[in-house]
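Session log. Operator J.P. requested a structure for one protein chain; no other inputs attached. Running the standard single-chain path with token output.
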Amino acid sequence: MATPEAIMKHYESDPDEDPWVRAKPAPAPVKVVPYDPAWPARYGELEARIRQALGPAALDVEHMGSTAVPGLAAKPVIDIDLTVADPVREDAYVPALEAIGYVLALREPSWHQHRLLQRDEPSVNLHVFGPDCPENIRHRMFRDWLRGHDEDRDRYAQAKQAAAGGVMQVMVYNKRKEATLRQIYERMFRAAGFL
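Structure written below.
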């Protein structure tokens, strides 16, 4: 089981690790749009296809990220966390996901063996982690915190809108909103009794 310390740890990428499975994508404008009430239904369809494709290999599938928080502005990309027995064993899940339109984009051994598969239409980031992964727990906690704390949801929405202005790379966008994100995480971790 993941410890509070592991859940609270902010990820810093390994500078020696090249995570891109294919070429790094070309810069494109980061767009944050108002909440779309169709996102949960879109997620539901995606989840059903993932579960059908993977069967028992899909230990858990959850809607994460900003599109999972009612009322929160977001990039129009559905984030999904998929739990599999062992992300390293790509043969157990990647071919089945490729068959339904996903492409393996990132392989990050230094970050809980994270794998990222993407799909263009609808736009999806499918994050693959193993059981009891601290990052998956952290994602779930943050989603649920924003669902139950309107002030932090709105604060995060403002930070996202400001961060997206004129930005051409998601990593720059993420860095720009990091201070607000970490303030919210600190409140969330205190409320959970971690601090």
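Operator note: The chain is about 40% helix and 15% strand.
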